Amino acid sequence: MNQIEIRATAELSLKGKKIIGRPVVYNSPSQDLGGFVEVIKAGAFGNSVNNDIRALVEHDHKLILGRTAAGTMKIKEDSQGLLVEIDPPNIQAARDLMTSIERKDISGMSFGFTVNPEGAQWDFDQTPALRTVTSANLLEVTITGMPAYKATNVEVAMRSLHQQQESHDIDLMLKRMEMMAL
Q1: Ramachandran assignment for 71, one of left (phi > 0), alpha (psi -120 to 50 degrees), beta (any other)
Q2: In which order are the strands placed within the sheet that holds 5-9?
Q3: Which residues of 136-169 are buried (b: 16+ CB within 10 A; e: fewer)?
Q4: Beta-strand (E) ranges in the chain?
Q5: Where does residue 27 fall: left (phi above 0), alpha (psi -120 to 50 degrees), or beta otherwise?
Q6: Ranges of residues in the chain whose predicted pLDDT is under 70
Q7: In the prediction, which pLDDT does 5 show?
Q8: In sequence order, what DSSP letters do the residues of 126-166 get, joined into one string?
Q9: Counting beta carbons within 10 angstroms of the beta carbon of residue 15, is it exposed (0 to 12), middle (13 to 18) or buried (19 or more)?
Q10: pLDDT score, position 152
Q11: Nearest of 97, 99, 111, 127 to residue 44 by alpha carbon
């Protein structure tokens, strides 16, 4: 089973009583995730943007702000990335959140995803290594007060990095052995 990975950006605003944000920016390198940076390529989420995606607060599945299946969230893909429009519920927690967004206390968005098999390429010839995601499943978007990568999710990403490095190192060793045999 693929591990859920989470990434964050800082593009969030209000439009009337709706929350507007861009949780995914294509072709934009992430911060260093502990030995690698990441780029999400245009179209990487394919048809998964049409799935039942939820909008959350701080990746908490108990704090749902909207949902595509309910029509309370819309996701639009453009050349820059994914854009969401959330129609939050009229509850105190959502009103407090919108006040915090308006005050700019909360200014970030994030997204949870899984990478499909063969959906990422690694370049270990640069430092830090580069992971390019070309095929993934979008699971959720979230409003966050900390538009940075969370340590627990970096650990998930680090496992992926270590697995790829080991595979890359084995491939290099096999190539060297083949060349020596010639």
Answers
A1: left
A2: 5-9, 108-115, 136-144, 54-57, 60-67
A3: bbbbbbbbbeebebbeebbebbeebbeebeeeee
A4: 5-9, 12-15, 18-25, 36-40, 54-57, 60-67, 73-77, 81-86, 108-115, 120-123, 129-133, 136-144
A5: left
A6: 1-11, 146-175, 177, 181-182
A7: 61
A8: SSSEEEEE-SEEEEEEEEES--S--HHHHHHHHHHHHHHHH
A9: exposed
A10: 24
A11: 111
Rounded Cα gap, residues 126 and 141, in angstroms:
30
List, as own/partner pairs, every contact residues 9-12 make where C-beta atoms lie below 8 angstroms and the sequence separation is at least 24, other chains included: 9/108, 9/109, 9/110, 9/147, 10/107, 10/108, 10/109, 10/147, 11/108, 11/109, 12/101, 12/106, 12/107, 12/108, 12/109, 12/143
Amino acid at site 175: K
- Report the amino acid identity of residue 23: P
pLDDT, position 158: 46
